[in-house]
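Technical note accompanying the year-one report. For the benefit of new consortium partners, we illustrate the data format agreed upon in the data management plan: each record pairs a sequence with a structure-token string. No post-processing was applied to the example shown here.
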Amino acid sequence: MQAIFEFGRALLCGLYPRRCCACLDEIDEGRRWGLCPLCEAALLPTGAGRCPVCGRPRPGLPLRFVGEPCRTCAAAPPPFDRAIAPYQHGGPLALALSRFKYDDKPAAAKPLGQLLARAARGFLRSGALQLPDLVLPVPLHKKRLRQRGYNQSALLAREVCRTLNLPFSLDALARIRDTPSQVRQGSRTARSRNLEGAITVMRPETLRARTVLLIDDVFTSGATAAACSKALRTAKPASVHVLTLTRKD
């Protein structure tokens, strides 16, 4: 039976070889993150010296200021406790996330989600993230969900929760207004205004006094994370943390 299984698997791999989710070159079955060796070597870690609240880079920051919030967060703290991302948005990951999000590639959720889970495990061990009581994806409006066929943030969050054995909720947070794409909004102010009244909590009793982890694919201006976190705060959670695979600076 095992021999038949291995033969069938080899046949399927021959007919449908695995591809790197960034450059689409063929890759070995053992490549865990779905990236070829060249694309994996080109990943860009976000690095140290960033604001411990919003994650904004601060090149050349003196060591004595590491760990202190940036001026923006100190003057006007965001509605989340911390936003963190393991990788910069560029190179192979930017391409992989674009294919995943816009080219009908839901299967990319598994390797990209496992890559995010590996980073999340490291953040939890180091104390950069608190162990969440509940993990939520950034919600997608039902109209956009019908058009795309899936919510990429939900697929990533499910894979992270499956890998790390964390509790997941799909319906505690909802997008009740179909907003124009954030990509088309030029400024941070325009992005924030675009999301006003778009996000709401559907099950506040599941969030009260709990540590919540919000997962998305990319952190750009922080407007989406802030809008979701502002809505979550109405349910009085203990804390709200934001985890994304990449961050645009």
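Partners are asked to follow this layout when depositing records. Confidence is low (pLDDT under 50) at residues 1-16.
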